[in-house]
Amino acid sequence: MSPIRLEQFTGSNFSYQHLPFERFLDDMVELGRERVELWGIAPQLHVPQLSNEEARGARRRIDERGLAVHCLTPEQVIYPVNVASPSPWLRASSIGMFRRAAELCVEFGAPLLFLTPGRGFEDEPTDAAWRRSVDAIGEIAAYAGRLGVACVLEPLQRIESNLVNDASTLARMLDEIGAPNLGAALDTVAMATAGDTVDGYFDRLGDRIRHVHLIDGRPNGHLAWGDGELPLGGYLEALGRRGYDGCLTFELFGDGSYAFDPRPALERCFAAVERELAAAATA
């Protein structure tokens, strides 16, 4: 057993879309972060529009503050991005977006690219959409691998995808793709919504779990800790007991109001984790 450490938590610009990028970076420094997960959101880091020159400028601002980028997470649920789409142009443009994101990972010095499975039409057989997703993610992972970038694939809630919603279908898709640089992401809201557990994820996926989004919910919602009902202490205990030594990120969205002033929500999350880790250390 290796307890989770506060140093494993990244900073992130989730909910910073209405503020300057520099405000996000300065907040992360003041919150004591060393690594960040970048959400590829407009207007700051919109992947299809971001040039290499602009990425290098952002990288300089990151470096100047002593920060490092751990993961790039392009927006891929709200935007018209769907690697499993039956529409040829949409699927092709989506694959192209992720290939471009892999190139930007190189510019940012980010070792990890975050992927989701897309969805098919609700009235078509899922086998066809499943195959489109497997082929697309395999192509993206192969391209990223040639650039020295690893990838993680995250299950989505059923309202977001009809393909990969739980640990079981995630394991099946990873097995079918068979890319050595493709691992799993565990999102506590998607996990809880599907009725999964941390132990269930590790039973099925083991050391293929390479990234964690640790957020509260009811069970959905992507909330700051204390705004939902999920068991933070239990999650931290299970992750530590299973030997998870990767990064964790607070992916905060809520109802959109966190974006008015995102820092207090992040501060509450870090404080909640610190309390739970301190309590576990003295138990």
Explain what the structure shows:
This protein is an alpha/beta fold and 283 residues long. It is 42% helix and 13% strand. The chain has an eight-stranded parallel beta sheet with strand order 1-2-3-4-5-6-7-8. Helix 3 runs parallel beside helix 4 and helix 4 crosses helix 5 (167-177). The longest helix has 21 residues, at 88-108. The chain is globular and about 55 Å long.
List how many beta strands DSSP finds: 8
Strand content: 5-15%
Query: Mean pLDDT, nearest integer?
Result: 97
Strand order of the largest sheet: 1-2-3-4-5-6-7-8
Helix content: 40-55%
Distance between the termini: 15 Å
Low-confidence stretches: none
Number of helices, counting only DSSP H or I runs of 4 residues or more? 9
* Principal-axis shape: globular
Biggest β-sheet strands, sense, barrel: 8 strands, parallel
Radius of gyration: 18 Å
Order of helices and strands: EHEHEHEHEHEHHEHEH
Structural class: alpha/beta
